[in-house]
Amino acid sequence: MHVPDGFFNVPVSVSAGAVAAAGVAVCLRGARRELDDRTAPMAGLVAAFVFAVQMLNFPVAAGTSGHLLGGALAAVLVGPYTAVLCMAVVLLVQGFAFADGGLTALGVNITLMGIVTVVVGWGVFRLVSRVLGGGRGAVVAGAAAGALLSVPASALAFTLLFWVGGTAPIEVGTVAAAMGGVHVLIGIGEALITGVTVSTVLAVRPDLVYGARGLTGRLVLRGADGRTTEVARDATPAAPAPRAGRFLIGGIVVTALLAGIASFYASASPDGLERVAEDVGFIERATDHPLGGQPLADYGDAGGIPVGVAGLIGVGVTTLVGGGLFYGVRRRERERAEV
Questions:
Q1: What integer pLDDT is reported at residue 243 of this predicted model?
Q2: For domain 10-338, is the CATH number 1.10.1760.20?
Q3: 229 pLDDT higher than 60
Q4: Smallest Cα–Cα separation from 5: which of 100, 112, 146, 144?
Q5: Does this model's pTM top 0.85?
Q6: Which residues of 112-139 are buried (b: 16+ CB within 10 A; e: fewer)?
């Protein structure tokens, strides 16, 4: 759902940019409470993973594809404030390095794909996981439900913005029906990807899943005499968390494989927004990206670079930019605490 230049008028583009800037500013402060020495590198990995998986368009209907948005996934893994920053980093790299998403529409994209998906995804996750009891299964189910609903919510937000300041005179009901229908299907794919990813991380390193930090349970202790005693897990002495180095290296390898190899097999069909714009009749309002002639534009297509190579470059750039940002936020918070 990368909105190109030309779909919205200047007032809406500027207003969305102001909302995005304010949201990022708030999240820069909020992320200080979410990031520590282990989760700051994790946040960089999450940003790179979202970038990679967004390259993997999957078919959702005849002639239409979709891809992960990633806001709900990022919120569950690293926290809602940090998740918005992850999405902003991904969209900045995509917009400036790969001409994916308009530059004048950058505020719209951050608002729709970053803020809306994170707020809706995190809110639904919290509600569902609490209703289901807060165990690991509840965390996975909550993450999937949040992902499922975050996509049509983002599509609805697009429809509202188009109603206010779209550049084509099209009935809002027509846009809403088309956007809602296809993005519900994309939301199902989003839920599957999010559920599998969160479940996998929980199985390997549950301490790195922000949304699972409140998990409690019963720990069975077996004595030398064979007797067993159940105690609250929170009542046991805190053990130092294992280093996340191996997990992060493994995550980078998986991310690189997705961007460098799996990207060759992504669906070439138009994504949901592009298909709706073609069918409803406002695709001609899109204008050429000002950076559309650079070598990496359209993930290497403009410069004749294989998509896998472009994907690896994107993963590297996103990791560096995101890692630098999150390390800087963590360092500032540490310095503030020492004063």
A1: 67
A2: yes
A3: no
A4: 100
A5: yes
A6: bbbbbbbbbbbbbbbebbeeeebebebb
